[in-house]
């Protein structure tokens, strides 16, 4: 049976120096795949980082700039190894950065692949990403954006999710299928992303959390994004460092796959910076300039003024 997407909006507006924030839940009623387990969402802050898990009702946080200068929009997927979401420094802070430059941003609080909460748990992050794209595209006029300038951005495991959404858009996953609405992002921004689940270069914790400790070969292949790049993959911007625990080969594999398929792609690999820096960590050297490189790329593509 076909289920049509429905948006339930909680008109909860938060005043900030950056934007008016609206919460848009991805689903009405029972969330697809839910086992009906009642559990409180867990949000804890330590080391200045907020980590969220046990997400049963996924949503978008809509950040509208006070002075809009572009009709592009970015859906942001925080990282956290598919075990938590580092939702502030890889989500809210990034949305504020885009707002400062006149761009509408959406922070995606997506479900984690928790078997105790969801049937077929591994598909739920991608289902939420695809539903987020549907919602933003369907309501583009309301959000004051162009339906063909909707990008997806991800950090670490969020980068894996964003790259999966950028390579698996021809198949809509889960219970909600709407052939009339494309779930293809128009551009991708992948920051220290996990890309491959191949043994040589994967981040084992991310892979294990999504598809298990000893996944079958077909699942490893399915979730290795570099193997699914095609000529229709959206233009992509990549950032990595050579000293990252998520090896830069992840970005390199995706970069090479884009080049092979004539997909516009730009990549910057810095010598130092480690992992998880986003905009938060300081004193790291040249890697701190990565947002300026992304800004240049977006201006070149006429997504930012």
Molecular structure report:
There is one protein chain. The protein has 305 residues and is of the alpha/beta class. It has one domain: Alpha/Beta hydrolase fold, catalytic domain (Rossmann fold, 3-Layer(aba) Sandwich), CATH 3.40.50.1820. Helices cover 26% and strands 22% of the residues. The chain is built from 8 helices and 12 strands. It has helices spanning 88-100, 124-138, 140-143, 157-167, 204-211, 217-222, 249-260, 290-300, and strands spanning 8-15, 19-25, 42-46, 49-53, 59-65, 73-77, 85-86, 104-109, 150-155, 187-191, 236-241, 265-270. The protein has a 9-stranded mixed β-sheet with strand order 1-2-5-8-6-9-10-11-12, sandwiched between helices. A 3-stranded antiparallel β-sheet has the order 3-4-7. α4 links the parallel β9 and β10. Mean pLDDT is 93; it is low at 1-18.
Task: Walk across the major sheet and give the strand order.
Answer: 1-2-5-8-6-9-10-11-12
Helix content estimate: 25-40%
What oligomeric state best describes the polypeptide chains here?
Answer: single chain
User: How many H/I helices?
Assistant: 8
* Domain unit count: 1
Termini gap: 44 Å
Q: What about the largest sheet?
A: 9 strands, mixed
Report the CATH superfamily: Alpha/Beta hydrolase fold, catalytic domain
Could you tell me the CATH topology label.
Rossmann fold
Strand content: 15-25%
CATH architecture grouping: 3-Layer(aba) Sandwich
Low-confidence sequence ranges: 1-18
Number of strands: 12
Q: Give the C-level CATH assignment.
A: Alpha Beta
SSE topology string: EEEEEEEHEHHEHEHHEHEH
SSE class: alpha/beta
């Amino acid at each position: 049976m076909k289920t049509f997407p429905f948006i339930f909006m909680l008109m909860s507006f938060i005043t900030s120096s950056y934007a008016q924030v609206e919460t848009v839940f991805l689903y009405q009623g029972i969330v697809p795949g839910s086992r009906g387990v009642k559990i409180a969402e867990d949000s804890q802050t330590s080391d200045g980082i907020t980590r969220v898990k046990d997400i049963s009702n996924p949503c978008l946080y809509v950040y509208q700039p006070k002075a809009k200068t572009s009709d592009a929009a970015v859906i942001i997927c925080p990282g956290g190894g598919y075990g938590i979401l580092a939702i502030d420094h890889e989500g809210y802070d990034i949305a504020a950065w885009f707002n400062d430059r006149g761009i509408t941003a959406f922070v995606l609080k997506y479900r984690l692949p928790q078997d105790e909460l969801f049937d077929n748990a591994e598909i739920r992050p991608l289902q939420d990403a695809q539903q987020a794209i549907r919602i933003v595209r369907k309501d583009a006029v309301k959000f004051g954006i162009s339906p063909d300038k909707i990008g997806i951005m991800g950090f670490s495991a969020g980068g894996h999710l964003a790259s999966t959404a950028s390579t698996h858009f021809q198949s809509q996953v889960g219970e909600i299928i709407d052939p009339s609405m494309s779930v293809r992002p128009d551009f991708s921004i992948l920051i220290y992303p996990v890309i491959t689940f191949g043994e040589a270069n994967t981040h084992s914790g991310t892979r294990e959390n999504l598809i298990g400790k000893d996944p079958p070969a077909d699942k490893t292949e399915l979730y290795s994004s570099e193997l699914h790049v095609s000529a229709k993959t959206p233009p992509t911007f990549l950032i990595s460092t050579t000293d990252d625990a998520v090896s830069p080969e992840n970005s390199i594999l995706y970069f090479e796959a884009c080049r092979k398929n004539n997909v516009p792609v730009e990549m910057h690999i810095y010598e130092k910076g480690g992992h998880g820096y986003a905009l938060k960590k300081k004193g790291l050297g040249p890697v701190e300039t990565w947002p300026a490189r992304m800004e240049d790329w977006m201006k070149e593509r006429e997504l930012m003024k």
